[in-house]
Structure formats: C-alpha cells, structure tokens
Design goal:
By secondary structure, the protein is of the alpha+beta class. It contains 2 helices and 4 strands, in the order ααββββ. Strands 1-2-3-4 form a 4-stranded antiparallel β-sheet, covered by helices on one side.
Length: 99
C-alpha cells in the first residue's frame, strides 16, 4: 500500500469531531514526516459485525534506541463495503522506563 493511499484512507476514516475538516491529511502527513521509521503493531483484535476493536502500539526511535514517539491504545473502526467508514482513536503516550 502506498503512503498516499494510506493517508487518503486514514483521512477519510478519521472522526471529523476529533480532527478539523481539511486538516486530517496534514495531521497524518506531519506524523509520518516527523517519524518516518514508525513501527505500528496490532497486538490483539476483536470483531462484532462491522465493528473491529484493535489494541495498537505506535513506536519510533531517535536512532539511538530511545523512543521519540511511543503510544499504545485502542482504535475502533467500522467497516462498510470493505472500506473503513469510521474510526475512533483512544491512544495514550507511553512513558519510557527509567534505567
């Protein structure tokens, strides 16, 4: 999947009450530019009809192994005609452990 295709899908699916209309593409593009090495992991999921709940981890590092960006949480998506038609993000920053 190309970055443009991913950005388009994320922008169309983002909740309009969370992101200002017309800015959603910029929000996602800014995130990908700031963290080009971002690792996205789906750790678990559950599905009921057209609603899918997933537990996610988004992580990028500073190049030295220390986290520059680290979030975990739940994303709930609603699928219609094999396309995400709605999404709700419940992501929170993760604090790096003290060594």
């Amino acid at each position: 999947m190309s970055r443009a295709h991913l950005l388009d899908g994320l922008a169309r699916a983002s909740n309009p009450f969370v992101h200002r209309p017309g800015r959603r593409e910029e929000n996602w593009e800014t995130s990908f530019q700031a963290h080009p090495d971002i690792q996205v992991t789906l750790t678990t999921r559950a599905q009921s009809d057209d609603e899918i709940w997933g537990e996610w981890e988004f992580k990028a590092d500073n190049g030295d192994g220390s986290p520059a960006f680290w979030q975990r949480g739940v994303i709930i998506v609603v699928v219609g005609s094999e396309v995400i038609v709605q999404s709700r993000f419940y992501m929170e920053p993760v604090e790096a452990p003290n060594d």
